[in-house]
Specification:
- The chain has 427 residues and is of the alpha/beta class.
- It has two domains: 169 residues, Beta Barrel (Lyase, Ornithine Decarboxylase, Chain A, domain 1); 187 residues, Alanine racemase (TIM Barrel).
- The protein is built from twelve helices and 18 strands.
- Strands 1, 11, 12, 13, 14, 15, 16, 17 and 18 form a nine-stranded mixed sheet that branches. It has an eight-stranded parallel barrel with strand order 2-3-4-5-6-8-9-10, surrounded by five helices.
- Strand 8, helix 8 and strand 9 form a beta-alpha-beta unit.
- Helix 5 packs across helix 6 and helix 7 crosses helix 8.
- The radius of gyration is 23 Å and the shape is elongated.
Length: 427
């Protein structure tokens, strides 16, 4: 029995899921620690790795990531508050929202939190705030869109010609304008790009990093000294959702970067990364109970309590975000071809629209009521980014840590209201 099976088996046998607790997200904290260790082992000491909080905003998970040596990259005031609650110090936080309010900017600069500027209008606001807080220790940079093109998934491609993010480097005379902006502002000491994540090839991501590294060199040369000291390279590593294999690895990405941009692997710049999904996805899983089963058009359908409300990307874009599932009997035994009939199966969620499906027409051991379904690789952007379905029942989130030292996990449980009356009383 592998580690994942041990964790799932323990959760089921401990009766964590009952009639009121119908879906649970589990983070393997020991696995998480190993992943962070793999990141740091792949890169030299001038690299500092931050975690994209939007990928998993559970405080317990973030506390663990902080303890393992990561910083926090946040993209909203809510994420900033969560990161601060998890104990990240100001110097280890970077704020990247494209829609920062003047109050957001003031809070960051006043409290020495680093940030990246998205556009010229935001720059005007920061010019005023730098007069107000000239002693700030906030490290400020410009987010640059290298406009290198899209990966396989348009919605996660951030370096297209018309991307909503950052300063379009190749439009008009923007490159020279950016050089002038830095020359006139000695407090601009960083430069940032986000070249893509899921669906983007490593070579495409590395090409974007090369462009901003060359730009930093050009700016420093124009100024006559090394004003830019930090390169902030956003964009996570793609995740393999087809199996348990971790591919590509952080070492593969480091090797690609080193071949494409060898200057990063000297001590000339501090380099910050913003990995998210690749840190948490394979260290998280969801278990949900099968409530009912039926046959429709010759298809076996298993209805569960995990659907679009916690598997949003898969429900709406199944082609790009397919998920693997494994069935377990009510006693925690994995369902296989040796103990159950293999049938074409749709695993469905509880939401009232036809696309609320975890998987479609998959050959699976036949599921029956009170079985469990394990949904793999869901530690990022799934059970930590839930929303209520049909407004009822209400959903609440809490975390708990296993008492077993061999199974160090954090659990995020979605508990349904006891009854409709309980919900109505809260409205």
């Amino acid at each position: 029995m592998n580690r994942k099976q041990q964790i799932i088996n323990s959760a089921i046998k401990a009766n964590i899921i009952d009639n009121n607790l119908t879906a649970i997200g589990i983070m393997d904290l020991n696995g998480l620690q190993k992943t962070v260790s793999d990141v740091y082992a792949a890169f030299p000491e001038n690299f500092f790795h931050t975690f994209a909080v939007k990928a998993n905003a559970l405080v317990k998970v973030l506390e663990s990531l902080r303890e393992y040596g990561m910083g926090a990259e946040v993209a909203s005031p809510g994420e900033l508050l969560i990161a601060q609650t998890a104990g990240f110090p100001a110097q280890d936080i970077i704020f990247d929202s494209p829609a920062k309010t003047i109050n957001d900017l003031r809070s960051c600069i006043k409290n020495d939190i680093s940030l990246n500027i998205d556009n010229l209008q935001e720059l005007e606001r920061i010019d005023q705030l730098m007069d107000e807080f000239p002693e700030t220790k906030s490290i400020i940079g410009f987010r640059v869109n290298p406009q290198i093109g899209a990966g396989k998934i348009g919605s996660t491609s951030t370096a297209t010609a018309t991307s909503k993010f950052g300063y379009a480097l190749t439009d008009n005379d923007n490159r020279q304008q950016l050089v002038n902006i830095y020359k006139n502002r000695p407090w601009l000491k960083s430069i940032h790009t986000h070249t893509g994540s899921q669906g983007c090839e490593l070579t495409l991501m590395a090409a974007g990093v090369k462009i901003i590294t060359e730009l930093a060199e050009e700016i420093n040369t124009a100024i006559g000294q090394q004003q830019i000291t930090r390169l902030d390279i956003g964009g996570g590593l793609p995740v393999n959702f087809a199996s348990d294999d971790v591919t590509p690895s952080f070492q593969e990405y480091a090797d690609t970067l080193k071949e494409t941009v060898p200057l990063l692997f000297t001590d000339k710049y501090q380099v910050k990364t913003e990995f998210g999904r690749a840190i948490v996805a394979k260290n998280g899983m969801i278990i949900t109970r099968v409530e009912y089963t039926k046959s429709s058009g010759g298809r076996h359908i298993a209805t569960t309590h995990a659907g679009a409300q916690i598997l949003t990307r898969t429900a709406f874009l199944p082609k790009f975000w397919p998920l693997r599932v494994t069935g377990y009997s009510s006693d925690g035994t994995e369902k296989t071809a040796s103990n159950a009939e293999i049938v074409a199966t749709d695993v469905a969620g509880p939401c009232c629209f036809a696309g609320d499906l975890i998987c479609v027409n998959k050959k699976l051991p036949k599921l029956v009521p009170n079985d469990y379904v394990l949904i793999h690789d869901t530690g990022g952007y799934y059970f930590t980014n839930h929303f209520d379905y049909n407004s009822l029942p209400r959903v609440s989130i809490y975390t708990a840590q296993s008492e077993s030292t061999s199974e160090n996990v954090a659990m995020s449980c979605i508990r349904q209201a006891q009854s409709l009356e309980d919900v109505l009383l809260k409205m």
